[in-house]
Amino acid sequence: xxxxxxxxxxxxxxxxxxxxxTRVFNFVCKQCDRSTSRETYGxxxxxxxxxxxxxxxxxxxxxxxxxxxxxxxxxxxxxx
Length: 80
Known about the structure:
By secondary structure, the chain is mostly beta strands.
């Protein structure tokens, strides 16, 4: 299997509007076995909204910058 290295840069984006395309799926819930429909923009859902209600949006996984560790100081002696 071929592998390659890529350069990943972190950046933040200003708030903006985005149009997403959603679809209404008619399916049988995997947990309660009832026929239901659900609107989603991703793949076909497995569970209805009563069994698995939509949760709050996930927070970003980007951690804040950590403080750098102190580096050792090098001193020149007067005698040498």
